Amino acid sequence: MPITPGHILISPVRHVRTFEELTDDERDALFTLTIKMKIALKTLFGAEGFHHAWNESEVGGQSVPHFHLHIVPRKNGDAGITEYEPRKFLYRPGSRESTPEDELRVVAEQIKDKYLESES
Question: What are the structural domains of the chain?
Fold first, then answer.
């Protein structure tokens, strides 16, 4: 069920469920192919922009347990999701207040500390 004409999936031949399971060579090949396909989609379908997406795990919306990257060509006036604002349809629908800066800083520090821990 393509979202727009030219909506494609890029998938490794080797079976993996998540992006992290890909080898460096597989990731390089995935992104090289993505660039080539975007050039083709611009030419063939007049794409002016793109959505790139993958889902991981059932809770993350993954219905096929094999990693695949969606490339959705977009242009003014096309059908499908015309406004991409995840907060409106994925997370917490409706209006909500902005997250306080202090809370954002705490989360950023936690991520930074975990990243530095994994680098050791």
Answer: 8-119 (3.30.428.10)
